[in-house]
Design goal:
By secondary structure, the chain is α+β, with helices and mostly antiparallel strands. It contains 4 helices and 17 strands. It has a 17-stranded mixed sheet that branches. A hairpin with a 2-residue loop joins strand 5 and strand 6. It is 15% helix and 46% strand. The chain is globular, with a radius of gyration of 17 Å.
Amino acid sequence: MELIFYKYQGTGNDFIIMDNRGGDITLATKQVKDLCDRKFGIGADGLMLLQTIDGYDFEMKYYNADGRESSMCGNGGRCLTQFAFDNGIQKEKYVFLAVDGPHEAFFSDGWVHLKMKDVEKVENVEGDYVLNTGSPHFVKQVMNVMSMDVYAKGHEIRYSDDFKAEGINVNFVEIKDEDEIIVRTYERGVENETLSCGTGVTASALIFAHNDLGFNRVEVSTPGGKLAVEFDKKGEGIFENIWLCGPATFVFKGLVNVN
């Protein structure tokens, strides 16, 4: 079958997007994996379908590059919101449904602002941290993050005895100051470093935020560009009103034959 696809990226985290509001697109795991292959397919960190669902502006169906349906993707949610706007769903504020529940989104100053799920628990694991921001994340503070081997160290943690069964995303964070961090992420499902990970950036910002309760904003640099995370810190390990903010950009459109 021949399908129309669109390519979008959010700080280098790139996605294949298809408009499935008609409900006629069904993709098998191998088909998604082949489309995301950077040598033999279109190439992407993931694939998303924009779908219609009662009570919401749209539904986000997300697949990792390995072809499997996955947990929430923050940069994907921002890119799908931009795609929805570009394809006729134009509103001041969006409410859409993803695998981890409802999300809100809006545009401001050229960026897409996406509301993430609240975080109610942060686990301290021998000085590192584990939390869920829509996807599970391991967060580790390091020095000189831009010079480290993220693939090797991330792969080691992701496939350690504690995490190999379900998998986990692994974030390495260098603190520049109390309101700015640098983040590099090894993503499960992609099984490599990505240029940016929205839920990982969110997790990292929450962990290394200023200790004051109340409103916080953390500026984040990734290999793919800059983002920001805004939130209210309500207590130890408790965060609400979390917003992932950053650019989402259309790259190109094409036709592809899917076997």
